[in-house]
Amino acid sequence: MHLEYFKLIDRIADLNVGDRTITVEAQVPQSNTIFEGHFPGYPLMPGVLLIESMAQTSGWLLIALLKFERMPFLASVKEAKMRDFVKPGELLTIDASLAHDGSGFAVTEAKVRVNGKLKCNATLTFRHTPFPNAELRGHMEEMAKRIGFPEQAMTHD
Does 100 qualify as catalytic in the annotation? Predict the structure, then answer.
C-alpha cells in the first residue's frame, strides 16, 4: 500500500472474469503519517480507506469485465459495515464480486479480511464511462502491470 498516493492494492491474487470475481492483497504499512492522527497511541487503518480499498478492488474487476475499454468511478457506498479494527502491518485480503451491471452502472459486493476474519464489507455502485483521456488510460495500464493484472484481460485495441 502507498497511502499517500491512494494506491491501496498491492497485487491481484485471483481474477475470474467468468465468475465475475476478484481477490487482491494489500499490506497495511507498519508505519505511516496517517497513523499519527488515527489514533495517537492506538493506530488504526481508517474505515474510509478500507472502503476505498474495496472500491479499488471492485474497480479492477470492472475494468477486466469491461475489457479495459471503460473506467469505473465510485458513485455510492451502501451497507458499509466496519466489523473489526485493522492495524498497521496487517495483510488484507479483499474480495469483490459483480452483483449487477447495466445502463452504465455496476454494483459490487466487497469484503476485507485479515487471516480469514471479516473486518468490513460494503455494497458499492459505480458509474462507468469510456476513458476520458489517453493519460488516464496509460496510467491505469501502468498500474495494472504493477499489481499483476492479467495481460489477457487487457483486450482493448
Answer: no
